[in-house]
Amino acid sequence: MTTMAKPRPRVLVTRRLTADVEARLARDFAASLNAEDRPMRREDILRLAESHDALLVTSIDRLGPGFVDAVPPCIKIIATFSVGYDHLDIPAARARGIAVTNTPDVLTDATADIAMLLILGAARGASWGDRMVRENRWGEPSPTSPLGHDVSGRRLGILGMGRIGQAVARRAQGFCMQLHYHNRTRVAGGKEHGARYHARFEDMLPHCDFLSIHCASTPETRKIVNAETIARLPDGAIVVNSARGDIVDDDALIAALASGKLAAAGLDVFRNEPNIDPRYRALDNVFMLPHLGSATPGTRGAMGMRAVDNLEAFFRGERPRDLLTGA
Ligand code: DGY
């Protein structure tokens, strides 16, 4: 008598992932891969989902509001290739009994490195300096022009003291920065890295020569950096964001950069990426990157493996390590 092999779970993968991750997906699942890495429309993902058990999505997919409610009932788990999950409606998934997982930890260092690059790049004029050299506008050097702003020894306020915020604090200690943080709850002493806790975000702001954003995008944090909170920063402060664009009110940030209230900004993330507010491009005191926080082969590979670990655990009937809801 022959025994029938158990059918492999069917996984729809919305974007191309690193070769080792795709090889594992092809080995362990009936995986539909996106070999050409063509961005998929929401309606195409939903249509293809009808013949799958699981979705492996990314934070750059244009899933749009109501996506989780719209996925067909055959989908049992959505694994997102990101630590952030603001693109997925977790309460809706919970209500429908769909499991959701993310990929924390493995991108902490890479993202904290980018935050330091933003701090340094915004303060020291990496963007305008690079353009001066490239465009042959270096001219005659002068002792007084061009000048950036000091980083070492200055005050850094960290908004969101999770894994990435803590990793930034560790790095900033190397620059002898004086650390402050705001988090919904105070973190354990060993995780504060000498930073002074402020229970209210507003109370931290006057102490920030630099404000670095590391909180999740939630209804409570959206546009939390706005005209009122920026006004509480010292004149000439610098704001950097490697978390999510919608935590910042673009109108307020752009006005503060144009008026000189803020000396500079460093931005790796934007509302409505990649179609960013075009006014940023006209500001010389903004150092911008195209959402590179996790963009190294090692980190992207580790994120993919983590997403696959979660899928495999789920289909073995175990609790996935990074379960946000379900199962
Ligand atoms: C994340 O994982 O949330 C990052 O922003 C994606 O690069």
Main attributes?
7-stranded parallel sheet, 327 residues, 32% helix, alpha/beta, 17% strand, 11 helices, elongated
- Rg measurement, Å: 22 Å
Q: Which class best fits the helix and strand makeup?
A: alpha/beta
Widest sheet: strand ordering: 8-7-6-9-10-11-12
Oligomer state equals single chain
The major β-sheet equals: 7 strands, parallel
Tally of separate helices: 11
Low-confidence parts lasting 5 or more residues at pLDDT below 50?
Answer: none
Shape: elongated
Mean pLDDT: 97
* N-to-C order of helices and strands: EHEHEHEHEHHEHEEHEHEHEEHE
DSSP strand content: 15-25%
How many beta-strand runs?
13
Bound molecules: (2R)-2,3-dihydroxypropanoic acid
Secondary structure layout:
Blueprint: E1 10-13, H1 19-28, E2 30-32, H2 42-49, E3 54-58, H3 67-70, E4 77-81, H4 90-96, E5 99-101, H5 108-124, H6 126-134, E6 155-159, H7 163-173, E7 178-182, E8 196-198, H8 201-204, E9 210-213, H9 227-231, E10 237-241, H10 250-259, E11 262-267, E12 286-288, H11 297-315, E13 323-325
Bound molecules: (2R)-2,3-dihydroxypropanoic acid (DGY).
Residues 59, 82-84, 107, 291, 293-294 line the site of (2R)-2,3-dihydroxypropanoic acid.
